[in-house]
Amino acid sequence: MSRPTPKSFHVKSFGCQMNAYDGTRMAELLEAEGMTVADSADEAELIVLNTCHIREKAAEKVYSDIGRIVKKARGSQQPMIAVAGCVAQAEGAEIPRRAPAVDIVVGPQAYHNLARLVADAAEGRRALDTDMPAASKFDALPKRRRQGPSAFLTVQEGCDKFCTYCVVPYTRGAEISRPWAAIIDEAKALIDAGAREITLLGQNVNAWTGEDDKGRLQGLDGLIRVLDGLPGLARIRYTTSHPNDMSDSLIAAHGTVTKLMPFLHLPVQAGSDRVLKAMNRSHDVASYLRLIERVRAARPDIAISGDFIVGFPGETEAEFEETLAVVRAVNHAQAFSFKYSARAGTPAATMEGQIAADVMDDRLQRLQALLNEQQHGFNLATVGTRCEVLIERDGKRPGQRIGKSPWLQSVIVEDGPAIGELVTVDIVAAGPNSMTGAIVAGQRAA
Ligand code: 5AD
Ligand code: SF4
Prior knowledge:
The chain is α/β, with parallel strands linked by helices.
């Protein structure tokens, strides 16, 4: 049965920053096709649910979202529904079987075909694409558009590490690095479109490797140094990194590249060598702590962030306490922590010793209390410093703006600097989640 081609759309992204990047690229693509961004999800003629599969009942959330959309539309024309992202990749044709309201299923490596899939769905044809083609989707995507002062740029995708708890190697495929020239072109386009900060993204971003314009093999630090030379760009960040890919030259870059911000997200996941081995992490606690020491030697003020999983199968109370000990040893500026969530198809899902929910709840609470305390401590320690803040958005009150410090803290300032302006600020107060800054007079030139 054919239906009108949608004229407006809404993209809702869940999960990681790479998904946020994909969501932005899908929106750019639909706009290039002549569609417009709907004022709200309720008014959109096409809704793209860009899903995440990493933990919890992510797939279930998608189905309840779809149910909600269908219910809301009752009586009027139901919007076209596309399921994109990692649930689309993992569940494929199962999605329209379970939720017949879904018109399109498109995986993370296939969304450059979204416009064709929309046309197919409008004609009443089956619209499912979860291929992982050898040719890059990036080549088929339109040029970057204005997206605000801080932009994401995916340079690497996929994962070959096969941590035993993780779905990413299955949903995002093998590790691939985008070519040098394509990345630099996209960075320049982003800067032309107003970006002042670029965050290089990858599931294992520091595994990026490629040949530069002279045919020399480069690592992520090579890319960072080239970006450092691009006029108009003020800040460079990268995420997420794996400890095993933290090369000497990348560590050194933290001490020498001016635009590289003093922030490193370097997940350790757990603090027991036995658990790390069962996770197939291929690093131990001691090597991780040495790495952190070397990074701090290169850049003493660097803010360290990480990810932690509590309740991995077989984790004992004593092993969990080793995680607390690592957290104490590192002292984080911020971190994410999660209860282990069994993912079908991963080795850990069928391991002995799955941990009871109440034990996981208790461990997560204790870990988060410690991490929150460290984050607040880090924030308090920056009070009294003078730093630059990149203004990103309006605050609640008139004239109030919110930006980011070099250490990725949210900083609230008054006096209405423009979005995209880099202002010099004295940090005057710290909360658990944000800072208050006073703009230094005469320091407003961007
Ligand atoms: N259960 C809980 N947390 C997970 N992560 C990845 N897979 C799982 C899982 N099965 C966490 C890891 C990773 C972050 C992105 O999500 O900490 O670094
Ligand atoms: Fe979620 Fe992983 Fe997919 Fe990102 S790559 S959306 S974290 S499952």
